[in-house]
Amino acid sequence: MKSVQHIxxxxxxxxxxxxxxxxxxxxxxxxxxxxxxxxxxYPISSWFEQKRIPRGLAVGLSILLVSILAFGVFYLLLxxxxxxxxxxxxxxxxxxxxxxxxSEQVNLLMGEGWMESHSPADVGSLFQLVDLNQTLFxxxxxxxxxxxxxxxxFLLLYYKDFFIEFLVRYTSKNQQAIxxxxxxxxxxxxxxxxxxxxxxxxxxxxSGVFFYFIGVKxxxxxxAFIAIMNLIPYVGVFLSSVFAIAYVFLTTDSLAYPFLTxxxxxxxxxxxxxxITPLVVGSKVKVNALAxxxxxxxxxxxxxxxxxxxxxxxxxxxxxxxxxxTNLKAFGYLLSDDVPVNEGVENFWKILRRKISREKK
Length: 361
Known about the structure:
This protein is an all-alpha fold. The protein contains 14 helices and no strands.
């Protein structure tokens, strides 16, 4: 009876937690991003403090340096975006020309008029802009979130001793265990963020070099797009590759270039998954692929793209938390990527197979 009550309480907490997280996304998303950025900027601000710079100024300088770098990259990409937008009419004409050529070839094979009966009425509808009101609302919301994240980050770094003292006073009986958990969780977040920044830079360079050599005009934009979308495992690289291949197809006259783009991006993805990420990021977030996929789906459902990115290190922190709990260690193991093949497991499957074979007889 107690176990049923525990399960009921757990399900109730999960449902209520999901409702609160989804409804309060406007508050929680920037706060969680700020927590991650605070962990990432902590080494920089600590270095400034060691140089006898006051904490407030040290934190402000850290955020300012990173902001300048981010705005420089954003300005460069924005120029490329505007250039791509200016070429949309030309791309549309190119699409019409390609459809005209392909329709003639298809009509020769399938019969006159077949392509026209299976084609959209207006090719230009592919390039229609989204509703202006929705765009303005989404842009304003995003700018508000981006503007408040540095403020949250500054306050979290400035009051870091205050939060540590709160944990010490709140957990008077298990101070060492809580402090070790905070330290390990911080190392997981720092390692994940620093490693993913390096991986993103490497993927951007590899993609940019490839796009440059095949003559893509906005190679910086597409390289950055592929590298940033690569932060979303499994899903991001597929979506970014589709857009990149489509652009190469629409702006070139040979099918060899789209095929070469597909092969190259696929090769970069294999290299990143099997060599770059294991060497650069390491195995700090030791979570199995099933847990990562579930984290991406749940994060995307709750918080969109931010959730898909943030929930991956969060699942690593959750695993650490569960492993430190006496009653929940098994659930922590369920999230890990350690899959042992021992005699007990092998004997279990042998007994099960024997039992099934006896029942069949």
